[in-house]
């Protein structure tokens, strides 16, 4: 539940968090001085400059030597040289903001609770360490300690010779399957993997990985 000091603040939060377009308004353009529909807003020196068109925006940037960037929350432009850097990395790309308030609203609107792939502790996704392994699997770790333990386990599982869970041959594990009970089955060849999966053809699909196994904390 969110608390607001005024109705206007609540409406502004609803607009920003739901990515709604700003209401249409008219104002005097800061460049051509004509009364027109506002198309672009620029935050400069604690003031909002309203512009009517891309040509006026280009002229405004040239005159003010503006290194403009667009806020990913309120959609206003701001000068990156004059504003403290507020940015987050989300959905595989960086997102920049004009102020801390916009950054916080963006995080509130996009955060979700996810479990750590190692210790299973649940945290918000923005508080997790994200890692994409060579198999394409996305891992979310709650701490550097869990990430380190995962890497140690990967090296231990991949380097030792173990018994294949299908043919019972002893060899270096090449493929791994994570079962529904979180245990890991190891296989010496892709053929053994397919034969093993054939036994579960009517069951939910298992999590498969090749060179990057899915270890279980010990």
Radius of gyration: 26 Å
Low-confidence stretches: none
> Considering DSSP H and I runs of 4 or more, what fraction of the residues is helical?
25-40%
Category by helix and strand content: alpha+beta
List keywords for this structure.
3-stranded antiparallel beta sheet, 3 domains, 218 residues, 27% helix, single chain, alpha+beta, 4-stranded mixed beta sheet, ZnF_MYMT-QRICH1
What does this structure look like?
Residues 29-64, 71-110, 116-154, 164-200 form the TRASH domain. This is (California timema) hypothetical protein. It comes from Timema californicum (California timema). InterPro entries: TRASH_dom, ZnF_MYMT-QRICH1. There is one protein chain. This protein is of the alpha+beta class and 218 residues long. The chain is elongated. The chain has helices spanning 7-17, 54-64, 100-110, 144-159, 190-198; strands at 26-28, 35-37, 40-44, 47-51, 68-70, 77-79, 86-90, 93-97, 113-115, 122-124, 129-132, 138-141, 161-163, 170-172, 175-178, 184-187, 207-209. The strands form 7 sheets. A 4-stranded mixed sheet has the order 4-3-6-5, with helices on one face. A 3-stranded antiparallel sheet has the order 16-15-17. A two-stranded antiparallel ribbon has the order 1-2. The two termini are 39 Å apart. The protein contains 5 helices and 17 strands. A hairpin with a 2-residue loop joins strand 7 (86-90) and strand 8 (93-97). The chain has 3 domains: 7-110, no CATH class; 113-152; 160-209, no CATH class. The mean pLDDT is 83.
């Amino acid at each position: 539940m969110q608390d607001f000091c005024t109705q206007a603040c609540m409406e502004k939060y609803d607009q920003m968090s739901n990515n709604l377009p700003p209401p249409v308004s008219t104002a005097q353009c800061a460049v051509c001085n004509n009364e027109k529909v506002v198309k672009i807003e620029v935050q400069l020196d604690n003031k909002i400059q309203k512009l009517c068109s891309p040509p006026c925006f280009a002229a405004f940037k040239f005159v003010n030597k503006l290194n403009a960037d667009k806020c990913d929350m309120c959609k206003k432009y701001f000068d990156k040289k004059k504003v403290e850097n507020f940015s987050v990395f989300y959905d595989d790309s960086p997102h920049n903001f004009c102020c801390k308030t916009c950054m916080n609203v963006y995080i509130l609107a996009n955060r979700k609770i996810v479990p750590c792939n190692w210790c299973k502790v649940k945290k918000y996704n923005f508080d997790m360490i994200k890692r994409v392994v060579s198999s394409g699997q996305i891992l979310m770790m709650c701490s550097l300690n869990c990430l380190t333990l995962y890497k140690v386990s990967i090296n231990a599982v991949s380097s030792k010779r173990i018994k294949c869970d299908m043919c019972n041959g002893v060899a270096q594990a090449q493929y791994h399957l994570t079962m529904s009970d979180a245990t890991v089955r190891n296989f010496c060849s892709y053929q053994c993997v397919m034969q093993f999966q054939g036994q579960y053809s009517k069951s939910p699909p298992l999590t498969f990985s090749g060179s990057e196994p899915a270890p279980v904390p010990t």
